[in-house]
Amino acid sequence: MTIDSGTLLADRYRLEAQIGSGGMSTVYRAFDTVLERTVAIKRMHRSLAEHSEQLERFRREARAVAQLNHPHIVQVIDAGEHEDTPFIVFEHVSGETLKERIRRAGRLPVTEAVAYAIEIARALGAAHERGIVHRDVKPQNVLINPEGVAKVTDFGIARTLDEHGLTADGRVLGTTDYVSPEQAMGHDVTGQSDVYSLGIVLYEMLTGEVPFVGENQVAVAMQHVREELPDVQQVRPSVGSALAAVVDRATAKELDVRYPSTGELIADLEDVLTIETSRRGEATGEATAVLRSLPPQKRDRVNLRLRRRGLLAAAVLLVVAALAVVAVNVLPERSSRGGGQTSSTPAQPGEVAVRLTTGQARDYDPPPGDGEEHRSEVHRVLDADPETTWTTEGYRGGGFGGKAGVGIHLDVGGGGRMVAATRLDVTTPAGGWSATVYAAPDGEVPATVDDPAWTEVGTLPAARTGTNEIALTTGATRYRYYLLWITSLPADDGSGEPARVAVSAMDLFRRNPGR
Fold first, then answer.
1. Judging by beta carbons within 10 Å of its beta carbon (0-12, 13-18, 19+), is residue 319 exposed, middle or buried?
2. How far apart are CA 348 and CA 478, in angstroms?
3. Dihedral of the CA atoms 493, 499, 505, 511 (nearest 10)?
4. How far apart, in whole angstroms, are the C-alpha atoms of residue 264 and residue 511?
5. Range of the domain at 323
6. pTM value?
7. What is the tens place of the pLDDT at every residue in 437-479?
8. How far apart are the C-alpha atoms of 400 and 420, rounded to whole Å?
9. Hey, how many other C-beta atoms are within 10 angstroms of the C-beta on 317?
10. Are residues 267 and 237 in the same domain?
11. Do 80 and 157 share a domain, yes or no?
């Protein structure tokens, strides 16, 4: 039941127009006659107000969201009742929903989609810190204001993590287009469920469509439980592998593979934003504002990449101009030959790259080492920037100071996600060192390199400058961890400087199941 425009609620809020309606409430644009500003009012349907459980859920929403004060969450201003029916007063956000934006624009620019995902994740993170799970993350519940800023709204089925008994066991709450597998099955819902739903929203922003379509909501929900998402890079090839890896991990069905928190998701999304911005040479829309909000070291990274890109573009133009002169004046009888730039480590026929985020590389310096080997740099081997490197510490005397070696391991996920890798490509700016590749199954990382859980699967007898392809003999055995164990250092170059090994990229490949 709706109420007429012009109705005054609580002797303060004058209703102007209905702007939305759902199964639980109707939303109005209203005017606050005290502070003389436009607000949004959500009024519970009167028929539901007679049911104690629904009434408690509505009141709980007001209490929960009123605790949150965040630039990317629609703010609760007030709450009250009118004719025994409760209402909540929110800040009014003009503009459009993210769903409307996707319908209008189709696929969003990649950097803009990543920027919105960061803003939504920051909002959800603020809620999770207060023990509040949204439970219905979808683009319809994200408002885009005229300045392009995303604001999350409608915590209507939100529930605090320490609250019980307000929802019947096994009941599925949320929109099934974005529902997490555990929520679809009626299991406990945590912040990881919001992470999954946000991953689906990111997929939709990148592709313009939801991943699953069925005859009814139950059919769609079961696809979230049982079916793998379509490959976002196949649907939109311009999506980089680092971003595709984030989508994969955010929407992993196994909780021990999925991002454990929005904090880790945000960190990877911020890295991806710098990568995608540098790939395109610019940022569009809200991406420019989000870039300004990044930590200083990440802002510096994208600025450096853009400067390098500008210098490279200028150099390419000069070379092209010079070659054009040669072609015209010196070799007029020869035709030019074009070609696209390829990855430094392309997949071979029958192989596919294992997508990894920057957080899935870890340094390895077991006893008698101190447990760390330039840990702050290790993400660089997966950041898609060949000019950034991880280096070992400096060592003298031809050895590792009493240690057998040091290394980096890649964690491909765990739980249900392990791979039988066929090749590890290691790119280094300086060769002259050697390494062994080990693999280990799911569980904790083996504490020492002598642990029998490690299985030797490949060797690099003498690294050369550039990309080194290491064939791996895993057979059909799937592993979670792949360790590059550096066993010797470059020879003394006479400079008096300690010896180090530098790695700028690591690329893991597996068999293509489609071949």
1. exposed
2. 20
3. 100
4. 29
5. 297-327
6. 0.73
7. 999 998 899 999 999 999 999 999 999 999 999 999 998 899 9
8. 31
9. 10
10. yes
11. no
